Amino acid sequence: RFLDYLSDLCVSNHIAIPVTQELICKCVLDSKNSDILIKTEPVKEMSQTHEYLSIEYSEEEVWLTWTDKNNDHHEKSIRQLAQEARAGNAHDENVLSYYRYQLKLFARMCLDRQYLAIKEISQQLGVDLIFLCMADEMLPFDLRASFCHLMLHVHVDRDPQELVMPVKFARLWTEIPTAITIKDYDSNLNVSRDDKKNKFASTMEFVEDYLNNVVSEAVPFANEEK
Q1: Helix, strand, coil percentages for the chain (3-state, nearest 5)
Q2: Dihedral of CA 16/20/21/24: which sign?
Q3: pTM, rounded to two decimals
Q4: Some GO term, biological process aspect, for this entry: which one (predicted)?
């Protein structure tokens, strides 16, 4: 409820309130208050042995770490938390729920390009890490959706990205220039734009595959959670 309350204070009618965002950013992201947040550890390589095959393989997993009220340190992979929560473990379910509301708060703090929050949060939660959780089918749908919102507001809707205006097929005669050259075309040479496109290549491919699967299913959203 505390995290949900803070995230609601960041917006009004789906529009960010910069002053409130800034106050909440400075308070929540202050190192003195780090104990209220669950930290997302960089991807750890886990060497596992398959249950049926005597073959060891490495798998990427994201780990969460937190401190409880007794100052005890805990860490667990996000996938394991999801499995335990699904099996009925109330503690792990609460931890995962708290983390989901934390992601929602982070997304709201960054809404409408609030760079104070974007700078801090993008360092903790990079594109590759968020994408790994978005695409992980072992995680619940609501958690994956929270990672999607975070990706949008922390990495996509920010500099140097810009809104691409669709081609207008009807225009005023006075708006048409009398002369035009290839140098006037804004995408002529832009290395940074290509770099950003490559950065999101795997994310774009995942979204395309996901939407194609939705279209091909007879009843795409029969599962209410999905």
Answers
A1: 55, 15, 35
A2: negative
A3: 0.82
A4: release of sequestered calcium ion into cytosol
Is residue 73 classed as helix, strand or coil in its secondary structure? strand
Res 158: pLDDT:
92
Average pLDDT over residues 89-95: 96
What pLDDT, on a 0 to 100 scale, did the predictor assign at position 199?
A: 87
Q: How many CB atoms lie within 10 A of CB 162?
A: 8
Q: Which amino acid is at 126?
A: G
Are 28 and 46 in contact, with CB atoms under 8 Å apart? no
Residue 130 predicted with pLDDT over 70 = yes
| DSSP SS3 for 130 | helix
Pairwise CA distance, residues 11 & 7, whole Å = 7
For 37-83, write each residue's pLDDT tens digit: 999 998 876 554 444 333 343 467 899 999 988 889 999 999 999 99
Q: Annotate 2-69 with DSSP letters as a single string.
A: HHHHHHHHTEETTEE-HHHHHHHHHHHTSGGGGGGS-EEEEEEEEEEE-SSS--EEEEEEEEEEEE-T
For 226, residues 6+ apart whose C-beta sits below 8 A from its C-beta are: 141
H or E element at residue 75? strand 73-77
The rounded distance, in Å, linking the Cα atoms of 63 and 65 is 7
Mean pLDDT over 4-14 rounds to 95
Q: How far apart are CA 99 and CA 37, in angstroms?
A: 8
Do residues 83 and 138 make contact, with C-beta atoms less than 8 angstroms apart?
A: yes
